[in-house]
Amino acid sequence: MGSNPIPAESEITSLAGHRFPGGFYSVAHWENFLLTECTGAALLPDGLVHPVALFHIPIAGAGTSIADMFALGQAESDLSIVIESYDWETYLSIREETRYAVSGSITSAKRCRNDQGNVYDRIQFCFELRTPDDSLAARVTITWHYTRNML
Amino acid sequence: MTLAVGDRIPEWEMASVSSDRMRTMAALLRDPNPLHWDRDAVDALPLGLGKRTINQGPLGLSYLINMLQAWGGPECLRRIMMRFPQVVLDGERVVARGEISALREEHGIQLADCSVRLEHDDRGVLLEGTATIIVPEHVILVG
Question: Do A39 and B62 lie within an 8 Å CB cutoff?
């Protein structure tokens, strides 16, 4: 456990409202094949993408990356992030080779303390995927804890 | 086929969580976190986990989805919200389990709300949360 400087609380709370550039993402067959294999399931029929893709499609499609999201919250290391929750809402099935428009933003950023009194920053990201005809296909909410001198 | 609140979802087993799959997943996700591919990095944490690798959160979550899709069909998932009280480690046997907590209709679609969790024989609940699935049309809701 190190003794890293903790960012000013205002630097964290000011992240709320940050918007990612946005963009588009299509899942290739090979990508769906490998992702699905990682889950231990058989490939889904009719070009359906395994919902596990709802983690990385929004991030990459919105024009950001896991590393960028770590950096935005001034993570003290790649090891210091703890997942609070993932909330995946699907309105339409995700399909291979379909070009989804992706938008994303930081919806909440606040300083917290755990039961032991340790400081951490709770940052919540929300992304939306839309089909080529602008129908909402999925909404994904990622909530991470940026631990400070805990791990 | 009938469904009622309290019915159990047929469980789904991952017999051994694979470090190779974590590596593939890390590459696909462009996930820089060494917890998923560097045993020494995990060993150095003050968590007492030893030389193991930690499964990605989305992969643990995917086991719950596999359970739901095996039961309700490949397009059944409407929503899943998971929390991660414990990590999942390579080599572990984990089992996805769940029950129906509510049955309801929304815009003419029959939905089942479910309580779901990923369990380890010794360490108990590793992931827990809720899911909503679309009930197939041929299923009769009871109660």
Answer: yes
Which one of A31, A48, A90 has the shortest CB-CB distance to B78?
A: A90
Q: What is the pLDDT of residues B79-125, one digit of tens each?
A: 999 999 999 999 999 999 999 999 999 999 999 999 999 999 999 99
Strand order through the sheet with A119-130: A23-25, A100-113, A119-130, A136-147, A81-90, B77-83, B124-134, B109-120, B94-106, B8-14
- Cβ separation A85–B83 shorter than 8 A: yes
Q: How far apart are CA B9 and CA B68, in angstroms?
A: 8
Domain borders along chain A are 9-147
What pLDDT band is residue B143 in, cutting at 50, 70 and 90?
A: low
**Position A2 pLDDT exceeds 60:** no
User: CB pairs below 8 Å between A and B: how many?
Assistant: 108
Fold of A9-147: Thiol Ester Dehydrase; Chain A (3.10.129)
Residue of A nearest to B66 (CA): A41
Rounded to whole angstroms, the Cα distance separating B109 from B106 reads 5
Tell me what the mean pLDDT of segment B56-75 comes to.
Answer: 96
Q: What is the ipTM of this complex?
A: 0.94
* DSSP-derived 3-state class of residue A9: helix
B2-17+55-141 topology per CATH: Thiol Ester Dehydrase; Chain A (3.10.129)
- Contact A78/B33, CB-based, under 8 Å? yes
Average pLDDT over residues A63-83: 94
